Amino acid sequence: MSAFFPRFGLLAAASFLAFSGPALAAPPRVVASVAPVHSLVATVTEGVSVPYLLLRGGASPHSYSLNPSDSRALSEAGMIVWVGEGLEAFLRKPLASLGAHARIVELQDVDGMTLLPRRDGGVWAEAKGRHAAEDRGDRGHAHREAHDHGNVDPHLWLDTGNAARILDAVASTLAQLDPDNAARYRANAAAGRTRLTELSQEIAEMLLPVRSRPFIVFHDAWQYFEREFGLAAAGSIALSPERKPGARRLVEIRDRIRDAKVVCVFSEPQFSPALVETVIRGTSARSASLDPLGAALLPGPEHYGRMMRALAADLLSCLRRDRR
User: Fold this and answer.
1) Cβ contacts of residue 199 below 8 Å, gap of 6+?
2) Distance from C-alpha of 298 to C-alpha of 192, rounded to nearest angstrom
3) Residue-range domains of the chain with CATH
4) pLDDT band with cut points at 50, 70 and 90 for residue 121
5) b/e map of 102-121 (b: 16 or more CB within 10 Å)?
C-alpha cells in the first residue's frame, strides 16, 4: 500500500504535463521614458504587465541621468518606448548599449504621427483658434510635418490624435513580441482610443470660453495642445529649457505681454518660476503653472487623462478670470 502513493504521484504528474500543453512565455518587460508615454503604454499592457517608468516625479527629460535601477531595467527590457533624441537626449547612448537587444519604439518615427516643427524665436504671431475644428476633423493632413528630427517639437503626446497612434504602435509591436497576449493588447488599445476621443471633446468644450485669450509659456512645450484646442499662445520666455534667456529676451517678452494684452504667463514645475515673476512685474498679467509631464500625478493607465484634464483646468482657471 505504501508503494501506491509514490507511483500514483508520478502518474498524476505525467497526466498533468500531457494535458496542460506548452507553458506560456512571460510577457516582454517594457520600459517607457516619460510619464505620459508610460501611461499610454500601461493602457495597452493593463492586465498583462506593468511597464517601467524612467523619469519619475519632477525630473526633466532635458537634464536627466540614469540611475542603477534604470540601467538594469533597460538591460532587461524586451521593448523600450521613447519620443526621440529631441526630448530624451540622455537615452541615445544607453539605447545603443543597454537596450541593444530590445525592440526600440521611437515615437517620432511612428507612421501617421503628427509632427510639428520647432517655432523660431520666443514671440509668435497671435493665435485665433482658427485651426481647431479642422485639426479635430483631419489630424493627419491639417498639420505641417517636420521630417528633420532635429527640428521637431518633441512634445507630441499633448495631441490626443498622436496619443491614439501611440496606443496603436505599442499594441502592434507587443502583439509581435508576445502573440499569446496579442488580443488583449489590441482590445486595450481600442478601448483607450475611445476614451481619447471622449477626452478631446471634453477638453474642447471646457476651453471654448477662453480660446481667444492670449498667454505666454515658460518654454515652447504646448504647441500640440494649442493646435488641437485652438488656443491663443503668444510666445515663450525661454527658447529652450537648457538656456536662460538674456535681458533682451525678457524685455521683448514684457513688451509682448503689454502689446498683446496677455492674460497669463505660465511657469513649469520642472524649472524655477523666478523668470516668470520677473517678466510679469509691473504688468496686469497673472502667473500660474502648467505641467506637460503631470509630475504630481501617480503613474499608470489613468495618468494621461488626468494630466490633460489638469492642463485644461489650469489654463481655464487663469484665463477666464476678469483682468485686474
Assistant:
1) 160, 305, 308, 309
2) 18
3) 30-112+155-202 (3.40.50.1980)
4) low
5) bbbbbbbebeebbbbebbee
Q: At what angle do helices 35-45 and 303-319 cross, to 10 degrees?
A: 140
Model's pTM, two decimal places? Answer: 0.84
> Over the stretch 23-42, which tens digit does the pLDDT of each residue have?
567 999 999 999 999 999 99
Among 48, 28, 50, 27, which Cα is nearest to 38's? 50
Torsional sign, CA 42, 65, 309, 219: negative
Residue 79 and residue 170: Cα distance in Å, rounded?
9
Confidence (pLDDT) at 62: 79
pLDDT band at 150 (very low <50, low <70, confident <90, very high): low
Which helix (H) or strand (E) segment holds residue 315: the answer is helix 303-319
Q: Which three cell numbers stand for residue 305?
A: 487623462
Q: What does 211-250 look like in DSSP terms, one character per residue?
A: TT--EEEEES--HHHHHHHT--EEEEEESBTTB---HHHH
Q: Which residues contact 88 (CB under 8 A, 6 or more apart)?
A: 33, 34, 61, 64, 82
Higher-pLDDT residue of 311, 320: 311
Residues 300 and 42: their CA atoms lie apart, in Å, by: 6
